[in-house]
Amino acid sequence: MHAALVQFKPRKGEVAANLAAMRAVFAQLAERPIDLIVFPEAALTGYFLEGAVYELAFESATLAAKIDEQWRASGAGGAVDVVCGFYENFGGTFHNSAIYVRCGEPDGVHVVHVHRKMFLPTYGVFDEERFLTRGRHLSTFPTPFGEAAMLICEDMWHALMPTVAALKGARLLIVPSASPARGLGGDGELESTLRWKAILGSTAAEHGVYVLYAGLTGFEGGKGMGGATCAFSPRGDLIASLGPLDAGILRVELDTGEIDIARATIPLLGDLSAVLPDLWLDEEIPVTRRVEERA
């Protein structure tokens, strides 16, 4: 499987220009075989929109048609799977979402799945829940590369999210993100980049999954986005990564057979599946009490 992770630098609020940039990326990628292309969170609008999300949000079918249009106009042949983060208008309710579409098919574009971000940060520089509604469900979905799940930015910081996705069968985690750059850590890397890589690598190793992370870059209103696009193997090893500041494309080749080997060698996910009922049905867990209160 050949995947491309796009570290994208959108023009804030300029959808037409950003779609043209997406088309240019497609043209560049079409020169070699490609199966899956991943763009970051809010890739076609920029992240810090506040109230402008209501003007720049898409219905998922409309966005899918626009992405398919760019793929066909790029001169690329054949079909490809594309993931893109976007602000979604879902029947008048607005979400921070990610769409997985199959483009270039003879019968048109196919929307495979839409994930709506469940953890909306509203602290520090973030104000998402003031303007958006959180998603209520985490689903996995079939792809040509096996069962997959999408987690948007802060979704990934809560260990329960990738755990639930893996328990539901996910073998591939796709993480579109728009994470501001923060601090300076060791080896010349940003503290925010080091934290992200620690989370992504430990998640990949614990659950035996590939993790693909595509980060937004550039500056919005004086805030720098951290980029740091990267991929981790099912053993938790860093396959490749980009730096924080520049737009770019990270090509990686994934062998889905490595997932089976990783899970057989270190069967942590199998162990969790066996122990899960004892953990989940513990009456001292607050969620158990909340379910009982609703009954």
TrEMBL record:
GO molecular function, one term: N-carbamoylputrescine amidase activity
Key words, A-Z: Hydrolase
GO term, biological process aspect, one: putrescine biosynthetic process from arginine
Coiled coil: none
InterPro entries tied to this protein: Aliph_Amidase/BUP, C-N_Hydrolase, C-N_Hydrolase_sf
Segments forming domain CN hydrolase: 1-256
Superkingdom, taxonomy of origin: Bacteria
Name the UniProt record assigns to this protein: Carbon-nitrogen hydrolase
Organism whose genome encodes this protein: Vulcanimicrobium alpinum
